[in-house]
Amino acid sequence: MTFFLFSYPQTINVQITATGLGKRFQRDWIFRELTHTFQPGSATAVLGPNGAGKSTLLNTISGQLLSTEGTLAYGLGSQAVAVEDVPQYLAYAAPYLELLEELTLLELLQFHTQFKPLRPGVSLDKLIDLMYLEKSRQQLVREFSSGMKQRLKLALALYADAPLLLLDEPTTNLDATGVAWYQEHVQATRAGRTLLLSSNVAAEYAFCDEVLLVTDFQPVRG
Hints:
By secondary structure, this protein is an alpha/beta fold. Helix content is about 25%, strand content about 25%. It is built from six helices and nine strands, in the order E-E-E-H-E-E-E-H-H-H-E-H-E-H-E. The strands form two sheets. It has a five-stranded parallel beta sheet with strand order 6-7-8-3-9, with helices on both faces. A four-stranded antiparallel beta sheet has the order 2-1-4-5, with helices on one face. Strand 7 (about 165-170), helix 5 (about 175-190) and strand 8 (about 195-200) form a beta-alpha-beta unit. The model is unreliable at about 1-10 (pLDDT under 50).
């Protein structure tokens, strides 16, 4: 496989510190008393069975959900980052995130990159080539297969100019060729960023250097 490597600032890494973190929906705790530091430049696999709360944890860490208890602290190098500023440093891919399907592929990329620029050295044409979607550049996204849409979501996150990357079940809807594409490109874009990956499929997170089990932070139900 050929890796597509692009220059990226190696000195700008995000650190996330969770202290006593907990999230509850109504009376049910999804996780509780989670204390962990996601070190700058680390790749952490967030593991657990379906329904264990992996997506909820990622959405809480991203700032999209407020925690019920505990704190989250973000740092960029030696500088603290407020939770409301986290989105500008964040790229996120998940099967449940929606695309603007009434746009063509090229229109969607042009719109998306106004708010989340691509990494240095990656043009829109280059990104389309990397996704193997050259023949679909003028096709409406709503006409894409589920695998094409997932590859598009992943590419927008992997090649975003963002030092914090969150991936939730990244190979959902991908066939064997798509899984190989994901594995190649996630490895090619790892450098210079902090990565959290929610999964229960070993092939998705084999490269990660840390593992966090959501079930270790769930209250025992009597």
